[in-house]
Specification:
The chain is of the alpha+beta class. 25% of the residues lie in helices and 30% in strands. It has 3 helices and 6 strands, in the order ααββββββα. The protein is globular. It starts with a helix and ends with a helix. Residues 13-123 form the DUF5655 domain.
Length: 127
């Protein structure tokens, strides 16, 4: 069950909640110690450090953005070369931030979860 504080994040974006529910379940299944922290502009997934976040960041131009979406942000030690990534930046050497638009529950698939798992492992390796 999604806590009320997380549900409140979706006020005005209720149709995106099923996508988040599926993503949250899959992410939290990676490790029992994963927690979700609610912020004003994003829901952040933490182990020892933040490794992924969900927001309504407009990573795509309006014409290319689906009517219902979430933006998933993950940090990896390499750049993903896939059309699923809307924006990738290297804020510092060896750290790539990727923004992916999720518009369907089916977008939370094995490929996506492999990237989230890599982001989790990458964040856990930090000192």
């Amino acid at each position: 069950m999604i806590p009320a504080s997380e549900r409140a994040f979706f006020i005005g974006h209720e149709s995106a909640l099923p996508i988040y529910e599926r993503l949250r379940e899959a992410v939290c299944a990676l490790d029992e110690g994963i927690e979700v922290r609610v912020g004003r502009s994003q829901l952040s997934f933490y182990g020892r450090h933040m490794f992924a976040a969900v927001s309504f960041l407009k990573a795509r131009k309006a014409a290319d953005r689906p009517p219902v979406y979430l933006t998933l942000t993950v940090g990896l030690p390499f750049r993903l070369d896939t059309p699923r990534v809307d924006v990738a930046t290297e804020p510092y050497p060896g750290r790539w931030t990727h923004h992916l638009t999720l518009s369907l529950e089916a977008d939370v698939d094995e490929e996506l979860m492999a990237w989230v798992a890599e982001a989790y492992d990458f964040s856990e390796a930090k000192r």
